[in-house]
Amino acid sequence: MPQSVTLFLQRRSGKAGAQVGLARLITNPGMRALNPVLVTMQKGWLTEQCVKAGIPYLIRAFPKSRSWKARLYANRVFGHDILQAARDRGWKPILVQSNDHLEGLLAQKIMRCGQIPGIIFLRSSETTRRDFFKYDCDRFNLIYAVGQELTAKAREWAPHSNIRTLDDGIDESDFYPPKDKAERFPTRILIAGSQSHDKGWADLATAIDLLEEDKSFPSLILDFTGTAPDPHLNDMRLSRQRRTKFNFIGRNEKFAELVRQYDLVIHPSREESFGIAPIEILAAGVPLLCSRTGAISKIRRANEWLFEPWNASELALRLRFLHDHWTTITVDIVESQRQIRSQFLMSRLVDDIVRGFQSIVAQPTPAKV
Q: What distance in Å separates the CA atoms of residue 247 and residue 224, rounded to the nearest whole number?
Protein backbone atom coordinates (compact mmCIF):
# COMPACT_ATOMS: atom_id res chain seq x y z
CA MET A 1 0.00 0.00 0.00
CA PRO A 2 1.64 3.32 -1.05
CA GLN A 3 2.35 5.82 1.72
CA SER A 4 0.54 9.15 1.33
CA VAL A 5 3.06 12.03 1.35
CA THR A 6 3.20 15.81 1.01
CA LEU A 7 5.81 17.16 -1.42
CA PHE A 8 7.63 20.38 -0.44
CA LEU A 9 9.34 22.15 -3.37
CA GLN A 10 12.42 24.29 -2.64
CA ARG A 11 14.88 24.74 -5.49
CA ARG A 12 17.94 25.86 -3.52
CA SER A 13 19.17 23.92 -0.51
CA GLY A 14 21.80 26.34 0.85
CA LYS A 15 21.09 28.07 4.14
CA ALA A 16 18.95 31.18 3.63
CA GLY A 17 15.70 32.59 4.99
CA ALA A 18 13.24 30.51 2.95
CA GLN A 19 15.20 27.32 3.53
CA VAL A 20 15.52 27.93 7.27
CA GLY A 21 11.79 28.61 7.55
CA LEU A 22 10.98 25.42 5.66
CA ALA A 23 13.46 23.34 7.67
CA ARG A 24 11.99 24.43 10.98
CA LEU A 25 8.54 23.56 9.68
CA ILE A 26 9.01 20.14 8.08
CA THR A 27 11.39 18.82 10.74
CA ASN A 28 8.97 19.68 13.54
CA PRO A 29 7.46 16.49 15.01
CA GLY A 30 3.98 17.91 14.51
CA MET A 31 4.45 17.79 10.73
CA ARG A 32 4.89 14.01 10.71
CA ALA A 33 1.12 13.72 10.24
CA LEU A 34 1.65 14.99 6.68
CA ASN A 35 4.61 12.67 5.86
CA PRO A 36 6.71 15.50 4.36
CA VAL A 37 9.10 14.83 1.47
CA LEU A 38 11.50 17.56 0.35
CA VAL A 39 12.06 18.07 -3.40
CA THR A 40 15.16 20.13 -4.16
CA MET A 41 17.84 20.52 -6.83
CA GLN A 42 20.96 19.48 -4.95
CA LYS A 43 22.27 18.41 -1.59
CA GLY A 44 23.07 21.17 0.89
CA TRP A 45 22.23 22.59 4.28
CA LEU A 46 18.52 21.89 3.87
CA THR A 47 18.96 18.22 2.97
CA GLU A 48 21.32 17.86 5.93
CA GLN A 49 18.57 19.09 8.25
CA CYS A 50 16.17 16.58 6.70
CA VAL A 51 18.61 13.72 7.23
CA LYS A 52 19.01 14.66 10.90
CA ALA A 53 15.22 14.64 11.34
CA GLY A 54 14.61 11.50 9.26
CA ILE A 55 12.76 13.42 6.52
CA PRO A 56 13.22 11.87 3.02
CA TYR A 57 14.09 13.99 0.02
CA LEU A 58 14.26 13.83 -3.78
CA ILE A 59 17.03 15.46 -5.83
CA ARG A 60 15.87 16.57 -9.26
CA ALA A 61 16.92 19.18 -11.82
CA PHE A 62 14.54 22.15 -11.68
CA PRO A 63 13.88 23.77 -15.08
CA LYS A 64 13.81 27.54 -15.38
CA SER A 65 10.05 27.59 -15.17
CA ARG A 66 9.51 30.85 -17.09
CA SER A 67 11.70 29.94 -20.10
CA TRP A 68 10.03 29.10 -23.44
CA LYS A 69 11.30 25.52 -23.23
CA ALA A 70 9.91 25.08 -19.73
CA ARG A 71 6.51 26.45 -20.64
CA LEU A 72 6.43 24.38 -23.82
CA TYR A 73 7.27 21.02 -22.24
CA ALA A 74 9.99 21.01 -19.51
CA ASN A 75 7.67 21.97 -16.64
CA ARG A 76 5.28 19.19 -17.60
CA VAL A 77 8.15 16.70 -17.83
CA PHE A 78 9.30 17.83 -14.39
CA GLY A 79 5.83 17.23 -12.94
CA HIS A 80 5.59 13.71 -14.35
CA ASP A 81 9.16 12.93 -13.27
CA ILE A 82 8.55 13.95 -9.66
CA LEU A 83 5.36 11.89 -9.45
CA GLN A 84 7.05 8.85 -10.99
CA ALA A 85 10.05 9.17 -8.66
CA ALA A 86 7.66 9.26 -5.73
CA ARG A 87 5.77 6.18 -6.96
CA ASP A 88 9.07 4.33 -7.44
CA ARG A 89 9.74 4.85 -3.73
CA GLY A 90 6.34 3.61 -2.66
CA TRP A 91 4.87 7.06 -2.06
CA LYS A 92 1.52 8.51 -3.13
CA PRO A 93 1.67 12.33 -3.26
CA ILE A 94 -1.62 13.81 -2.05
CA LEU A 95 -0.50 17.44 -1.68
CA VAL A 96 2.28 19.67 -3.01
CA GLN A 97 3.69 22.83 -1.44
CA SER A 98 5.63 25.59 -3.22
CA ASN A 99 7.99 27.23 -0.72
CA ASP A 100 7.90 30.58 -2.53
CA HIS A 101 6.44 32.03 -5.71
CA LEU A 102 9.52 31.05 -7.76
CA GLU A 103 8.58 27.37 -7.38
CA GLY A 104 4.93 28.11 -8.16
CA LEU A 105 4.76 27.07 -11.83
CA LEU A 106 6.52 23.78 -11.12
CA ALA A 107 4.19 22.98 -8.23
CA GLN A 108 1.28 23.76 -10.55
CA LYS A 109 2.48 21.11 -13.01
CA ILE A 110 2.66 18.51 -10.25
CA MET A 111 -0.88 19.48 -9.23
CA ARG A 112 -2.16 19.03 -12.78
CA CYS A 113 -0.21 15.86 -13.59
CA GLY A 114 -1.14 14.21 -10.30
CA GLN A 115 -4.61 15.76 -9.91
CA ILE A 116 -3.73 16.77 -6.35
CA PRO A 117 -4.21 20.06 -4.47
CA GLY A 118 -1.47 22.57 -3.84
CA ILE A 119 -0.40 25.17 -1.30
CA ILE A 120 2.00 28.05 -1.85
CA PHE A 121 3.98 30.12 0.62
CA LEU A 122 4.70 33.75 -0.27
CA ARG A 123 7.89 34.65 1.56
CA SER A 124 9.56 37.60 -0.17
CA SER A 125 8.68 41.11 0.95
CA GLU A 126 9.53 42.24 -2.60
CA THR A 127 6.81 40.09 -4.18
CA THR A 128 4.78 42.22 -6.59
CA ARG A 129 1.34 41.82 -8.12
CA ARG A 130 3.11 40.95 -11.39
CA ASP A 131 5.12 38.20 -9.65
CA PHE A 132 1.96 36.89 -8.02
CA PHE A 133 0.14 36.29 -11.28
CA LYS A 134 3.22 35.47 -13.38
CA TYR A 135 3.80 32.40 -11.21
CA ASP A 136 0.10 31.44 -10.99
CA CYS A 137 -0.03 32.00 -7.24
CA ASP A 138 -3.77 32.62 -7.43
CA ARG A 139 -4.33 29.07 -8.76
CA PHE A 140 -3.34 27.33 -5.52
CA ASN A 141 -5.94 25.89 -3.16
CA LEU A 142 -4.42 27.72 -0.21
CA ILE A 143 -1.99 30.64 -0.02
CA TYR A 144 0.10 31.37 3.05
CA ALA A 145 1.69 34.84 3.03
CA VAL A 146 4.48 35.48 5.50
CA GLY A 147 3.69 38.54 7.61
CA GLN A 148 0.65 40.77 7.75
CA GLU A 149 1.75 43.28 5.10
CA LEU A 150 2.26 40.62 2.43
CA THR A 151 -1.03 38.98 3.46
CA ALA A 152 -2.87 42.26 2.91
CA LYS A 153 -1.29 42.66 -0.53
CA ALA A 154 -2.17 39.10 -1.55
CA ARG A 155 -5.78 39.55 -0.44
CA GLU A 156 -6.02 42.72 -2.50
CA TRP A 157 -4.57 40.95 -5.57
CA ALA A 158 -6.74 37.83 -5.24
CA PRO A 159 -9.79 38.63 -3.11
CA HIS A 160 -11.50 35.32 -3.89
CA SER A 161 -8.51 33.12 -2.97
CA ASN A 162 -8.03 31.30 0.33
CA ILE A 163 -5.22 33.36 1.92
CA ARG A 164 -3.84 33.02 5.44
CA THR A 165 -1.03 34.70 7.34
CA LEU A 166 2.03 32.60 8.08
CA ASP A 167 4.40 33.49 10.89
CA ASP A 168 7.85 31.95 10.79
CA GLY A 169 8.92 30.32 14.03
CA ILE A 170 12.00 29.17 15.86
CA ASP A 171 12.70 26.21 18.10
CA GLU A 172 13.48 26.12 21.81
CA SER A 173 16.93 24.84 20.87
CA ASP A 174 17.64 28.22 19.20
CA PHE A 175 17.63 30.04 22.56
CA TYR A 176 20.77 30.92 24.52
CA PRO A 177 21.15 32.65 27.88
CA PRO A 178 21.40 36.45 27.50
CA LYS A 179 25.00 37.61 27.27
CA ASP A 180 26.24 39.99 29.93
CA LYS A 181 26.41 43.49 28.53
CA ALA A 182 29.98 44.52 27.71
CA GLU A 183 31.45 46.98 30.17
CA ARG A 184 32.16 49.47 27.39
CA PHE A 185 30.47 50.30 24.11
CA PRO A 186 31.60 47.66 21.59
CA THR A 187 33.76 48.97 18.78
CA ARG A 188 33.58 45.70 16.81
CA ILE A 189 29.98 45.14 15.66
CA LEU A 190 28.31 42.48 13.53
CA ILE A 191 26.07 43.73 10.71
CA ALA A 192 23.47 41.10 9.81
CA GLY A 193 21.77 40.72 6.46
CA SER A 194 23.14 40.43 2.94
CA GLN A 195 24.45 42.54 0.09
CA SER A 196 20.92 42.92 -1.33
CA HIS A 197 19.82 46.57 -1.45
CA ASP A 198 16.76 45.89 0.72
CA LYS A 199 18.91 44.84 3.69
CA GLY A 200 19.90 48.42 4.39
CA TRP A 201 23.68 48.24 4.35
CA ALA A 202 23.85 51.47 2.32
CA ASP A 203 21.81 53.20 5.05
CA LEU A 204 24.28 51.98 7.65
CA ALA A 205 27.19 53.32 5.58
CA THR A 206 25.46 56.71 5.44
CA ALA A 207 24.87 56.60 9.21
CA ILE A 208 28.57 55.95 9.80
CA ASP A 209 29.46 58.92 7.61
CA LEU A 210 27.16 61.12 9.69
CA LEU A 211 28.70 59.87 12.94
CA GLU A 212 32.26 60.37 11.69
CA GLU A 213 31.57 64.07 11.20
CA ASP A 214 32.16 64.16 14.96
CA LYS A 215 35.87 63.46 15.40
CA SER A 216 35.26 62.27 18.96
CA PHE A 217 33.10 59.36 17.82
CA PRO A 218 35.25 56.22 17.90
CA SER A 219 36.47 54.32 14.88
CA LEU A 220 34.54 51.09 14.53
CA ILE A 221 35.12 47.70 12.94
CA LEU A 222 31.98 46.47 11.20
CA ASP A 223 31.76 42.82 10.13
CA PHE A 224 29.09 42.27 7.44
CA THR A 225 27.56 38.80 6.99
CA GLY A 226 28.00 38.66 3.23
CA THR A 227 30.11 39.91 0.35
CA ALA A 228 30.72 43.47 -0.77
CA PRO A 229 27.75 44.54 -2.92
CA ASP A 230 27.79 45.61 -6.53
CA PRO A 231 27.74 49.43 -6.29
CA HIS A 232 25.31 49.59 -9.23
CA LEU A 233 22.79 47.62 -7.17
CA ASN A 234 23.63 48.72 -3.63
CA ASP A 235 26.03 51.63 -3.31
CA MET A 236 27.79 51.67 0.05
CA ARG A 237 30.41 54.13 -1.30
CA LEU A 238 33.16 51.73 -0.32
CA SER A 239 35.82 53.87 -2.01
CA ARG A 240 35.15 56.69 0.46
CA GLN A 241 37.79 57.35 3.09
CA ARG A 242 36.46 56.38 6.53
CA ARG A 243 37.93 55.81 9.95
CA THR A 244 35.55 52.89 10.38
CA LYS A 245 36.66 49.63 8.78
CA PHE A 246 34.17 47.54 6.78
CA ASN A 247 34.86 43.80 6.70
CA PHE A 248 32.79 41.45 4.54
CA ILE A 249 33.05 38.06 6.22
CA GLY A 250 30.67 36.03 4.04
CA ARG A 251 27.81 33.79 5.06
CA ASN A 252 28.11 31.53 8.09
CA GLU A 253 25.75 28.59 8.45
CA LYS A 254 26.32 28.56 12.21
CA PHE A 255 24.57 31.90 12.65
CA ALA A 256 23.88 31.75 16.38
CA GLU A 257 27.47 30.79 17.15
CA LEU A 258 28.69 33.70 15.02
CA VAL A 259 26.31 36.15 16.69
CA ARG A 260 27.44 35.06 20.16
CA GLN A 261 30.98 36.24 19.35
CA TYR A 262 29.80 39.88 19.38
CA ASP A 263 28.51 42.24 22.05
CA LEU A 264 26.31 44.22 19.63
CA VAL A 265 24.59 43.35 16.35
CA ILE A 266 22.89 45.74 13.92
CA HIS A 267 20.17 44.62 11.49
CA PRO A 268 19.44 47.67 9.28
CA SER A 269 16.96 46.02 6.88
CA ARG A 270 14.72 48.28 4.81
CA GLU A 271 11.98 45.70 4.29
CA GLU A 272 11.01 42.30 5.70
CA SER A 273 7.89 40.19 5.24
CA PHE A 274 8.58 38.60 8.65
CA GLY A 275 12.24 39.10 9.54
CA ILE A 276 13.49 35.90 11.15
CA ALA A 277 17.10 37.10 11.55
CA PRO A 278 16.39 39.71 14.28
CA ILE A 279 14.39 37.11 16.18
CA GLU A 280 17.24 34.63 15.89
CA ILE A 281 19.71 37.24 17.15
CA LEU A 282 17.61 38.05 20.20
CA ALA A 283 17.06 34.36 20.85
CA ALA A 284 20.84 33.98 20.75
CA GLY A 285 20.96 36.41 23.67
CA VAL A 286 22.91 39.27 22.05
CA PRO A 287 22.05 43.02 22.16
CA LEU A 288 20.46 44.06 18.85
CA LEU A 289 19.87 47.43 17.22
CA CYS A 290 17.40 46.95 14.37
CA SER A 291 14.88 48.60 12.08
CA ARG A 292 11.14 48.49 12.71
CA THR A 293 10.23 46.09 9.93
CA GLY A 294 8.59 42.70 9.91
CA ALA A 295 7.50 41.09 13.17
CA ILE A 296 10.03 42.80 15.43
CA SER A 297 7.49 45.40 16.63
CA LYS A 298 5.46 42.57 18.17
CA ILE A 299 8.47 41.64 20.29
CA ARG A 300 10.16 44.89 21.32
CA ARG A 301 8.95 48.16 22.78
CA ALA A 302 12.28 49.74 23.76
CA ASN A 303 12.69 52.63 21.28
CA GLU A 304 16.40 53.04 21.98
CA TRP A 305 16.97 49.67 20.24
CA LEU A 306 14.78 50.45 17.21
CA PHE A 307 14.85 52.85 14.25
CA GLU A 308 12.72 53.45 11.16
CA PRO A 309 13.79 51.58 8.00
CA TRP A 310 15.36 53.65 5.21
CA ASN A 311 16.28 56.29 7.82
CA ALA A 312 20.05 56.64 8.05
CA SER A 313 19.77 59.75 10.24
CA GLU A 314 17.73 57.95 12.88
CA LEU A 315 20.06 54.95 12.72
CA ALA A 316 22.98 57.31 13.40
CA LEU A 317 21.11 58.89 16.32
CA ARG A 318 20.32 55.51 17.88
CA LEU A 319 23.89 54.31 17.48
CA ARG A 320 25.16 57.54 19.01
CA PHE A 321 22.72 57.16 21.89
CA LEU A 322 23.92 53.61 22.58
CA HIS A 323 27.53 54.84 22.57
CA ASP A 324 26.83 57.75 24.93
CA HIS A 325 24.61 55.80 27.37
CA TRP A 326 26.07 52.31 27.12
CA THR A 327 26.91 51.94 30.81
CA THR A 328 23.39 52.83 31.96
CA ILE A 329 21.15 51.57 29.16
CA THR A 330 18.94 48.54 29.81
CA VAL A 331 19.23 45.62 27.41
CA ASP A 332 15.81 44.12 26.63
CA ILE A 333 16.87 40.56 25.80
CA VAL A 334 15.03 38.80 28.64
CA GLU A 335 11.69 40.42 27.74
CA SER A 336 12.31 39.93 24.02
CA GLN A 337 12.97 36.23 24.51
CA ARG A 338 9.80 35.93 26.57
CA GLN A 339 7.79 37.53 23.76
CA ILE A 340 9.38 35.27 21.15
CA ARG A 341 8.53 32.17 23.16
CA SER A 342 4.93 33.30 23.62
CA GLN A 343 4.34 34.15 19.95
CA PHE A 344 6.81 32.51 17.59
CA LEU A 345 7.82 29.08 18.84
CA MET A 346 7.34 26.63 15.98
CA SER A 347 5.87 24.11 18.42
CA ARG A 348 3.05 26.64 19.04
CA LEU A 349 2.50 27.42 15.35
CA VAL A 350 2.71 24.02 13.69
CA ASP A 351 -0.68 22.63 14.76
CA ASP A 352 -2.58 25.36 12.92
CA ILE A 353 -0.44 24.86 9.82
CA VAL A 354 -1.03 21.11 9.83
CA ARG A 355 -4.77 21.66 10.14
CA GLY A 356 -4.63 24.08 7.21
CA PHE A 357 -2.85 21.52 5.05
CA GLN A 358 -5.21 18.72 6.09
CA SER A 359 -8.28 20.85 5.30
CA ILE A 360 -7.10 21.18 1.70
CA VAL A 361 -6.51 17.45 1.33
CA ALA A 362 -10.03 16.81 2.64
CA GLN A 363 -11.68 19.02 0.03
CA PRO A 364 -13.72 17.04 -2.52
CA THR A 365 -12.26 18.86 -5.56
CA PRO A 366 -8.47 18.30 -5.32
CA ALA A 367 -6.74 20.69 -7.64
CA LYS A 368 -7.45 24.12 -9.10
CA VAL A 369 -6.82 23.65 -12.83
A: 6
Query: For residue range 119-157, what is the model confidence (pLDDT) as tens digits?
Result: 999 998 889 999 999 999 999 999 999 988 899 999 999
Beta bridge partners of 307: 291
Domains of the chain: 3-169+346-361 (3.40.50.2000), 173-343 (3.40.50.2000)
Hey, what long-range contacts does 158-164 have (CB within 8 A, 24 or more apart)?
158/132, 164/356
Average pLDDT, the chain: 94
The pTM of the full predicted model, rounded to 2 decimals, is 0.87
